[in-house]
Amino acid sequence: MLLALLVPRAAASQECGDRPTQAEMNRCAAAEFARVDAALTKAYDEYRSRLNEDQGRRLGDAQRAWRRFRDLWCGFESSAVVGGSAHPFVRHSCLAEVTRARLRQLSVAAVCEEGDLSCPAPR
User: Fold this and answer.
1) Which residue ranges make up each domain of the chain?
2) Burial, 22: exposed, middle or buried (Cβ in 10 Å; 0-12, 13-18, 19+)?
3) What is the mean pLDDT of residues 42-62?
């Protein structure tokens, strides 16, 4: 399942971009973002459960800051089409892409090895 979520944005956007109407493209992109965001939440919760209290707090702080960054970045990236019918598609496509990248970060951190000095919680 994780590999399916790591499909690049171009492929996911292309699939949604092939829909016959803008409304269907928008719904598809929103559903894709919801799917990837749910996978990120699950991966985050599983990873955080392995951390000690201090690490969990730090990861929580980082995750909240990352979500704020994601939302602001995608607001910026979609700013050229605000008010247009394509805005939801562009915004949700960006949200899915940035969330997929974060999912990759957490997935790599979750399997780091003992001895890696940048590994807070070896598997």
Assistant:
1) 51-103
2) middle
3) 96
